[in-house]
Amino acid sequence: MFAKTRETEIALGPVIQAGMEACKAADCSAKLFIFHTSLPIAEAPGKLTNRDDRKLLGTEKEKTILSPQSNFYTTLGQECVAASCSVDIYLMPNSYIDVATISEVCRMTGGQLHKYSYFQADTDSERFLQDLQNNVKKPIVFDAIMRLRTSTGIRATDFWGNIYMSNTTDVELASLDSDKTINVEIKHDDKLNEQDGAFIQAALLYTSVSGQRRLRIHNLSFNCCSQMADLFRNCELDVLVNVLSKKALKDVLHISPKDIREKLMATCSQILACYRKNCATPSSAGQLILPECMKLLPLYSNCVIKSDALQGAQDVSIDDRSYLMHLVNSMDVVSSNCFFYPRLLPVHDLDPDSKTMPDPIRCSMERFHEDGVYLLDNGLSLFLWLGHNVNSQWVHDVFGVQSLAQIDIDKSELLELENGTSHRLRNLVQMIREERQRHMKLSIVRQRDKLEPWFGHFLVEDKGFNGTASYVDYLCHIHKEIRALLS
After folding, report:
1. CA-to-CA distance for 400 and 417, rounded, in angstroms?
2. pLDDT digits (tens, 9 = 90+) for 53-107
3. 231 CB contacts (<8 Å, ≥6 apart)?
4. Which residues on neighbouring strands pair with residue 214, listed in sequence order?
5. Which end of the chain is more exposed for a tag (fewer CB within 10 A), N or C?
């Protein structure tokens, strides 16, 4: 149809509008799959201008480039929700594409956003096809409305996630699947009875794929306590970190990066100072005392501050930053836990006969050995780090070459070689990929190669190369803040 066209400019808005109108005409719910490559600059609805200015990241003005440049795609998303039409976008850009603006239509409709920068068929096609296959096969419902009801004394005050709310009570989604997460903040604003407890009901009205209108209801009962020690004993740290990260992302569009970091540090300090003041046994002021279930709160809060979704470093592009913000905004607890503190596995001494996951080690270069091999997983990417003195037999068993220098690091898949080491490592990589919602591309990193500094960026207990604090330094700072609050 377009074989002889001379038009080179791209349009995106009318494509989504056409899909939505087709959905309306058919009088049914639908999911649109959009495959898009470059900034839509054609004279058409949804036209965007290039505002790529990486120097603004980390400054007071970063919110101007991380916010949508117009409300066209936000409004279009609202219209799609009304038509029960969700939008999934697969981006394959070679340059700036303005994810902050385009992603709005996915965010509003409960759709998914995938990004494959500098897409190459030989290295990225497997990831793209797996993501598309998983998306098509995933159980899904349409035209969903969720409402939360609470017992006396508590009420829902805030909601986070890739959702649309036309009022203060109803969460609307054009589609919903098992990978979506919605966070709700419940405020305690009246007296609660320890004997009666507190109750929450989440009611979800939706249309199944077969066209049936259904109602799913979850009822939760919570214990109430009058002692602060009981409260701290029952805190769930991973959920707290998930919520703190989404609160911080919401602040990105309103306050400066410095204020966001200080707000997170203040929250961490106040929580731990409250425990020290109300629950801990009297001890020296110079001693750092942490609640058992929150011993890692300083570590995780530092990881949130250092993450690419929040940290305003110029080594991450504006589009990548916006993309990660979009992902984190709907991450479940398991995914956010791994994203902020990656899992690091030693794989140089795997037992070929074992089928279990090796024990993870702490994310610090101090744990590495030059004769070791380590697999890092953050839920979005996989890295295989090879030490300078790794055993040559291991290299031959896994890569089929005699030395480290002969390994083709541009390959994103391991060779299928007939030996125990190769089988075990490939099975481990497959096991990890099956745990995650998205197919993770494998990158090979040799010690002292040009890619190693980027790999070190994920070793979150170390000092960041953009000046962010190591875990030890951050812990000392939090300790000072706690002492200041108590004095």
Report:
1. 8
2. 999 998 889 999 999 999 999 999 999 999 999 999 999 999 999 999 999 999 9
3. 225
4. 206
5. N
